[in-house]
Amino acid sequence: VQLQASGGGLVQAGGSLTLSCTASGRFDHLNDMGWYRQAPGKQRDLVATISRYGAITYEDSVRGRFTISRDTAKNTVTLQMNSLKPEDTGVYYCKAESTTMDHKWSRPVFGTSWGQGTQVTVSS
Fold this sequence. Notes:
Helix content is 0%, strand content 61%. It is built from no helices and eleven strands. It has strands at 2-6, 9-12, 17-24, 29-38, 44-50, 56-58, 66-71, 76-81, 90-102, 107-114, 118-123. Strands 2, 4, 5, 6, 9, 10 and 11 form a seven-stranded mixed β-sheet that branches. Strands 1-3-8-7 form a four-stranded antiparallel β-sheet, with no helix packed on it. It is elongated and about 55 Å long.
Protein backbone atom coordinates (compact mmCIF):
# COMPACT_ATOMS: atom_id res chain seq x y z
CA VAL A 1 0.00 0.00 0.00
CA GLN A 2 1.37 3.40 -0.94
CA LEU A 3 0.14 6.54 0.79
CA GLN A 4 0.38 9.98 -0.77
CA ALA A 5 -0.18 12.91 1.57
CA SER A 6 -0.74 16.53 0.66
CA GLY A 7 -1.98 19.80 2.08
CA GLY A 8 0.67 20.98 4.52
CA GLY A 9 1.99 24.52 4.60
CA LEU A 10 2.58 27.66 6.60
CA VAL A 11 -0.32 29.34 8.36
CA GLN A 12 -0.77 31.92 11.09
CA ALA A 13 -2.14 30.96 14.47
CA GLY A 14 -5.91 30.71 14.31
CA GLY A 15 -5.85 29.67 10.68
CA SER A 16 -6.88 26.44 9.00
CA LEU A 17 -5.34 23.74 6.85
CA THR A 18 -6.66 20.55 5.31
CA LEU A 19 -4.49 17.46 4.93
CA SER A 20 -5.41 14.65 2.58
CA CYS A 21 -3.94 11.19 2.13
CA THR A 22 -4.80 8.71 -0.60
CA ALA A 23 -3.94 5.04 -0.58
CA SER A 24 -3.08 3.08 -3.70
CA GLY A 25 -1.72 -0.35 -4.53
CA ARG A 26 -2.95 -3.84 -3.85
CA PHE A 27 -5.19 -4.46 -0.86
CA ASP A 28 -8.67 -5.76 -0.12
CA HIS A 29 -9.57 -3.49 2.76
CA LEU A 30 -8.24 -0.45 4.54
CA ASN A 31 -8.90 -0.73 8.23
CA ASP A 32 -7.84 2.05 10.59
CA MET A 33 -6.50 5.19 8.93
CA GLY A 34 -5.08 8.12 10.77
CA TRP A 35 -2.73 11.04 11.19
CA TYR A 36 0.32 11.34 13.39
CA ARG A 37 2.64 14.26 13.90
CA GLN A 38 6.23 14.66 14.88
CA ALA A 39 7.46 17.93 16.31
CA PRO A 40 11.17 18.78 16.11
CA GLY A 41 13.11 16.69 18.60
CA LYS A 42 10.06 14.74 19.70
CA GLN A 43 8.55 11.36 18.99
CA ARG A 44 5.77 10.74 16.53
CA ASP A 45 2.40 10.99 18.28
CA LEU A 46 -1.15 10.16 17.33
CA VAL A 47 -3.36 13.06 16.24
CA ALA A 48 -6.52 11.31 15.07
CA THR A 49 -7.66 7.95 13.73
CA ILE A 50 -10.79 6.67 12.03
CA SER A 51 -11.76 3.05 11.69
CA ARG A 52 -13.19 1.33 8.66
CA TYR A 53 -16.61 1.70 10.27
CA GLY A 54 -16.21 5.34 11.25
CA ALA A 55 -15.12 5.12 14.87
CA ILE A 56 -12.95 8.15 15.63
CA THR A 57 -10.23 8.89 18.17
CA TYR A 58 -8.63 12.30 18.79
CA GLU A 59 -5.63 13.33 20.80
CA ASP A 60 -6.89 15.55 23.62
CA SER A 61 -5.20 18.75 22.46
CA VAL A 62 -6.86 18.67 19.02
CA ARG A 63 -10.35 17.56 19.98
CA GLY A 64 -12.85 20.22 18.96
CA ARG A 65 -10.41 21.84 16.54
CA PHE A 66 -9.53 19.00 14.15
CA THR A 67 -11.90 16.78 12.22
CA ILE A 68 -10.90 13.50 10.61
CA SER A 69 -12.95 11.89 7.88
CA ARG A 70 -12.53 9.27 5.21
CA ASP A 71 -13.93 8.46 1.80
CA THR A 72 -13.93 4.69 1.55
CA ALA A 73 -14.67 4.68 -2.18
CA LYS A 74 -11.67 6.93 -2.87
CA ASN A 75 -9.37 5.34 -0.24
CA THR A 76 -8.77 8.78 1.21
CA VAL A 77 -8.48 10.13 4.73
CA THR A 78 -8.72 13.86 5.41
CA LEU A 79 -7.78 15.97 8.42
CA GLN A 80 -9.45 19.36 8.67
CA MET A 81 -7.45 21.51 11.08
CA ASN A 82 -9.01 24.68 12.45
CA SER A 83 -7.91 27.17 15.09
CA LEU A 84 -4.32 26.11 14.59
CA LYS A 85 -1.79 26.84 17.31
CA PRO A 86 2.01 27.10 17.14
CA GLU A 87 2.22 23.85 19.11
CA ASP A 88 0.52 22.08 16.19
CA THR A 89 3.69 22.60 14.18
CA GLY A 90 5.34 19.43 12.96
CA VAL A 91 5.56 16.88 10.21
CA TYR A 92 2.23 15.13 9.76
CA TYR A 93 2.20 11.53 8.63
CA CYS A 94 -0.76 9.50 7.48
CA LYS A 95 -0.99 5.84 8.38
CA ALA A 96 -3.15 3.03 7.08
CA GLU A 97 -3.76 -0.50 8.25
CA SER A 98 -4.62 -2.84 5.41
CA THR A 99 -5.85 -6.36 4.81
CA THR A 100 -4.96 -8.33 1.70
CA MET A 101 -6.20 -11.85 1.14
CA ASP A 102 -3.50 -14.37 0.32
CA HIS A 103 -5.50 -16.68 -1.91
CA LYS A 104 -2.73 -19.24 -2.14
CA TRP A 105 -2.89 -19.91 1.57
CA SER A 106 -6.47 -18.68 2.09
CA ARG A 107 -5.51 -16.31 4.85
CA PRO A 108 -5.50 -12.54 5.34
CA VAL A 109 -2.26 -10.61 5.39
CA PHE A 110 -2.24 -7.49 7.53
CA GLY A 111 -0.03 -4.53 6.76
CA THR A 112 0.84 -1.08 8.07
CA SER A 113 1.83 1.73 5.75
CA TRP A 114 3.04 5.28 6.30
CA GLY A 115 2.91 8.29 4.04
CA GLN A 116 5.93 10.44 3.34
CA GLY A 117 4.99 13.23 5.75
CA THR A 118 3.87 16.78 5.11
CA GLN A 119 5.13 19.83 7.00
CA VAL A 120 2.69 21.99 8.93
CA THR A 121 4.07 25.21 10.37
CA VAL A 122 1.92 27.51 12.50
CA SER A 123 3.39 30.92 13.21
CA SER A 124 2.46 32.95 16.26
